[in-house]
Amino acid sequence: MSASRLLTACLALLLGGACASTPKPAPTPPPAESAATSTPAPTESAPTPGAARPSEPATSGGAQVVKTVPAPSATPSVEPSPAPPRPQATGARGDFERAVEIARRGELEAAERGLEALLEANPKLDYAWTNLGVLRERKGKPEEAERAYRKALELKPEQESAWDFLTRLYCRTGRASRIEAELRQKLEAKADSASMRTSLALALLHQQKLESAATEAKRALKVEERYVKAMQVLAQVYYREKKFELARMVLENARAIDTQDAATHNALGLVQLALKARPLALESFKQAAQLRPDFAEARNNFGAMLNEAQDYPAAITELEAAVRSAPDFASARLNLGNAYRGTGDFVRAKDEYGQVIKLQPQLADTYFNLAILYLDLEPQGMDTLERFKAAITWFEQYKGKGGKDERVEQYVKDAQKGIDKEERRREREKRDQLRKAQKAEEDRKKAEEEAKQAQQAAPSPSEPATATATPDKTSTPPSTPSATPTPGSGKLTSDDK
Question: Which Pfam families match (predicted)?
Answer without folding.
Answer: TPR_1, TPR_16
